[in-house]
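Table S2 (text version). Query chain:
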Amino acid sequence: QTTSLAADNLLAVAGDIVITSGTFAPGAATLEVGGNWTKNGGTFTVGTSTVTFNGGASKAINGTTASQTFNNITTSGSSTSITMSGSTTTVTAAALTVGASSTFTALSAGTLNLTGTLTITGTFVAPGSTGTFNLSGNFVDNGVFTHNSGTLIMKAAGAQSVSGTENPIVFNNLTVNTTGTALTISSPNTTNLIGS
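Corresponding structure-token output:
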């Protein structure tokens, strides 16, 4: 069974979204989630959709599925806190936007792959020293970045940049694997490296 949404639809769920079987294909719709995102099976066809976690309180991206993929993930609302938990150890998304007064905490020993831009206005806690954090887009920090003793790997086929208003932006380890172009750190940022 396939559940799909029209491109201009907004699906607002006050509680949890749980996928156990079939196919959920939201297309270009926006999904507002007030609870957990739990995937225990089935297929989530991401399309160009945006999943927005809101409504305050703690929520999780979890389930029995080890790796989950999204298009855009957004957090919004005061005290909204998102974590990776359960058997989900890898999250991949085209872009992640952490809204003001909200928090996104990656699994310390997990993997976070962002193929687009990370925008921080609230608080972002990166994977730790035993985790993996790959970023193929730009790093925009207008909030709080917590490196969690991990390594940020900047890896893109083109130019990448670090910008924003947090000053200084403190990285533990920073690896730059951009192809044929440089990483640009925009003024007025001071970027501190604790490791290498």
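Notes on Table S2: DSSP finds no helices and 27 strands in the chain. The radius of gyration is 17 Å.
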